[in-house]
Recover the amino acids of this structure.
């Protein structure tokens, strides 16, 4: 066991996420891009609370309020993983498919997203020795199953899946706004 198990949490999350990535070259996986600091800032918030267990419980409750089911919780390392499933079909996909079908005289079909699983991986860790300041980082991503096996000019067998990180700032803002409220209410026993 390493210390209190804290250094293991980021490795655990990275291992889980990297194991889910399909069709990614190793060089691309570790490539540094200019948007990494922006993504990290969007995914991370600090909380002034001495109780990490309550912070994880509040995080799980917020995820459940957002429709997620907690699938894994490793409190001793500050890790949560939750998922929710829903249809990935969007109205715009069908309009685009009909237009392409008409314009190509029925010879070319566009891929349609069929189903998706949206997942959230959360890591909480103390930032100081007194554990009065906590950092929470959450990563939302989705696994999408395609109808005809095409994903961004790559072939994926029909019914297979691909994974992508959700980069919509509104998703993260919504989560952290609810978590901030939950932490405040818990701290003041309201």
């Amino acid at each position: 066991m390493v210390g209190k198990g804290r250094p293991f949490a980021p490795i655990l999350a990275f291992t889980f996420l990297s194991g889910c990535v399909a069709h990614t070259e190793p060089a691309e996986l570790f490539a540094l891009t200019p948007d990494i600091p922006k993504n990290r800032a969007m995914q991370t918030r600090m909380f002034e609370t001495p109780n990490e267990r309550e912070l994880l419980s509040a995080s799980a409750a917020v995820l459940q309020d957002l429709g997620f089911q907690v699938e894994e919780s490793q409190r001793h390392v500050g890790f949560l993983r939750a998922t929710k499933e829903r249809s990935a079909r969007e109205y715009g996909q069908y309009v685009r498919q009909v237009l392409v079908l008409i314009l190509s005289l029925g010879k070319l079909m566009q891929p349609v997203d069929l189903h998706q699983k949206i997942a959230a991986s959360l890591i909480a860790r103390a930032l100081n020795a007194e554990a009065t300041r906590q950092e929470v980082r959450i990563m939302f991503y989705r696994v999408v199953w395609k109808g005809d096996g095409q994903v961004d000019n790559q072939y994926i067998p029909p019914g297979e899946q691909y994974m992508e990180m959700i980069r919509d700032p509104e998703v993260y803002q919504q989560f952290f706004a609810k978590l901030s409220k939950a932490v405040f209410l818990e701290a003041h026993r309201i």
Notes: The mean pLDDT is 75. The helical segments are 8-20, 26-29, 36-43, 52-65, 91-103, 169-187. The first strand starts at residue 44 and ends at 48. Residues 8-187 form one domain.
